[in-house]
Amino acid sequence: MLTSLDGYIEDKEGNFGWAAPQDEQVHTYINELVSSVGTYLYGRGMYETMLYWETAHTIPNQPRFVLEWAHEWQAAEKIVYSSTLSEPRSKRTRLEQEWNPEIVRRLKADATHDIALAGPALAAQALRAGLVDELQQIIFPVIVGGGKRFLPDGLRVNMDLMEQRSIGNGVVVLRYTIRS
């Protein structure tokens, strides 16, 4: 997930524009990073944020790297965990009323592609259930001083660093594997 240096995905007002990857190098890296993803798991809030990509290709003069990401996102399956949404607002999307770690475990076992999970509450549930193999944090050079945290309190997970990289405009990528 995209985070501030102090570990937030959005600030106290719910803003996250500081983390929008406008830089071509950052956006291209993210495109490459998720190119193997065939299914995204989202909570309602993250899904509603990502809905932009369902129609991003219709906005005039979009850069190629933005159109590539929009195409990748549109082509992927999406599972949204929400008790409040009545129907999906994007193609290739299904709604689930509640999180069920056993169903996700089976989805992982049967997958022929990578599965990505986004949203801090959903990620916390998956980490607690032992369903996460890799954690990726893309850190933007900004301190926002509070808001929605990337990781919850009370969670302990041992990891091994598998990649660290600096990319455009001071952005740092950390990728960790989860120790069994």
From TrEMBL:
Coiled-coil annotation: which residues? Answer: none
Domain of life from the UniProt record: Bacteria
Q: Which InterPro entries match?
A: DHFR-like_dom_sf, RibDG_C, Riboflavin_Biosynth_HTPR
Domain Bacterial bifunctional deaminase-reductase C-terminal, by residue range, is 2-173
Stored PANTHER family: 2,5-DIAMINO-6-RIBOSYLAMINO-4(3H)-PYRIMIDINONE 5'-PHOSPHATE REDUCTASE, DIHYDROFOLATE REDUCTASE FAMILY PROTEIN (AFU_ORTHOLOGUE AFUA_8G06820)
Q: What is this protein called?
A: Dihydrofolate reductase family protein
> Which species expresses this protein natively?
Rhodocytophaga aerolata
